[in-house]
Design a protein that fits this description.
Length: about 270
């Protein structure tokens, strides 16, 4: 029997990297997608239309080595959420090499200008860019992998969502809150899992939102410095363990169409 194949976007660092490694440990061969191919190529992007970029650690090259160390095959595929042609090329590469995608984890997000700006300060073209990267790209990827899943009567779509999709901030962005551009795009993506579960659940498709909570990624450490210790938070590996559990546990099938609260579930299942 062929090993299952996962396609994880945003896998060069942070939550995506941790999920790729955990899925490898759970028996998946893992196609890993991101823009950063080699160490030193990744940089932060300012979410407020101001500020200067900083180098971020992490790359597909590094994640691939970790996946292979976990005993699975790794297939790095370049992908840019703002380049639809790159999405198609990435999926076709995976299907050409491994013939299948059993699990799509839409983890990558756009973190550039406008995501954390105040509404009146955010140009409409930046809002269009945010929705292209955070909503339409994920729908394009789902459309590319679902035909094969339906042909096998089995497959899983997971979307890494956020609490900002469901709740209002208590303060404006810049004062502890978040921008409408980011929150509204996450809100739109948040609707996908429930609708796919209703439409395609009878045909063997599982769909989930995974809400990670506050996670201390490389980006958070660079952008917030010591501030992250004030807020607490968990390491990306906790979210990776939850994603692997949802992907493999029989009892997780009953949760299809819902939002998985990753950190509480990790405690309940002893995954933290």
């Amino acid at each position: 029997m062929a090993r299952p194949v996962a396609l994880v976007t945003g896998a060069s660092r942070g939550i995506g990297k941790a999920c790729a490694v955990s899925l490898a440990g759970a028996g998946f061969d893992v196609a890993i997608a991101a823009r950063t191919l080699r160490e030193g190529e990744g940089v932060t992007e300012s979410p407020t239309l101001t500020g200067s970029p900083q180098v971020l650690p992490g790359s597909l090259e590094t994640t691939a080595k970790l996946v292979e160390q976990a005993g699975s095959r790794a297939l790095p595929v370049p992908m840019n959420l703002l380049d639809r042609a790159s999405l198609t090329r990435a999926v076709h590469t995976v299907l050409g090499e491994w013939e299948r995608v059993d699990l799509l984890l839409n983890n990558a997000i756009y973190t550039g200008p406008g995501t954390m700006s105040r509404f009146l300060d955010t140009p409409v073209d930046e809002l269009e860019r945010i929705f292209e990267a955070n909503v339409l790209a994920q729908m394009v990827l789902a459309k590319l992998v679902l035909p094969g899943m339906l042909g096998r009567s089995r497959g899983t779509i997971m979307n890494m969502t956020s609490a900002v999709a469901e709740f209002d901030p208590t303060a404006p962005t810049g004062e502890g809150g978040w921008g409408l551009g980011y929150a509204s795009s996450k809100g739109a993506l948040h609707r996908m899992a429930g609708i796919l579960a209703v439409e395609l659940g009878p045909h063997g498709i599982l769909a989930y939102n995974v809400e990670p909570g506050y996670v201390v990624t490389e980006r958070i450490e660079i952008e917030q410095g010591d501030m992250f210790s004030v807020h607490g938070g968990c390491p990306p590996e906790t979210i990776g363990a939850v994603v692997a559990w949802v992907a493999t546990a029989e009892e997780a099938r009953a949760l299809s169409g819902t939002t998985i609260r990753a950190q509480p579930l990790a405690k309940e299942q002893g995954l933290a």
